[in-house]
Amino acid sequence: MRILGLKEKEYTSVHVRSHYPTTIIGNIAARQLNISFRELDIEKSIRFEGRMKDHLIAVTNNAFYCDSILNPLPANTTPTIYICSDDNELVNHFVTHGVHISGRQTPIIPVAHQNKTGKLLHLEKDADDHAHLHFFPLIEDLLIMGGGKCVTHGIGSFGAFGAGLTGNECRAVHRPYNGRPGECPNNRADRWAVNITLNHVLLEEQIGGEREGKLDFEGIPSPW
Predict the structure, then answer these.
(1) Predicted pLDDT at 201
(2) Which of 73, 152, 202, 217 has its CB 3.0 to 4.6 Å from that of 67, i.e. a possible disulfide?
């Protein structure tokens, strides 16, 4: 964090999961490669060009807008923002061009980032084929997100994990599971509590019995 010029709780983080297999991402990738959706390996098929580039830039611009709502600052103040993603080219685009947020006196806001090259690994897919040290950039992203003031994230659990490390006290979700940019502000980051002592939550009249107190959530009203 010191190398990046970041001070604990004095910056916000934006995470964009570019390669998450949404329908819109799959359709764009399939058209680019002139293959069917079923033939895709999305993790290997994302190309940061053409319509895919436009879509991911729009998603990320929306993420920065959500961040600006989450962390409002005076117009003459330049925010410190850390960006991380599973697509190096997307990160490099915003490092090169900066972030444009309406209402700021500084028209282009620079972003902090890790200088990564090559393929970014995923723990669930690549763990058996790579040494532990190859995953250090992932751990660093999590620690940096966790050290910040707020986290804005979208689809997937990685950004949500980073937000959890901050205590979930300042968090926004910029992209729902349909893969399109989500409007901000929204209530997607709200936390809901379920009272597990309510009779309709328990499998039986009391915890225990044949299923040893496991809970059955069928029939519980959804907060969403």
Answers:
(1) 46
(2) 152
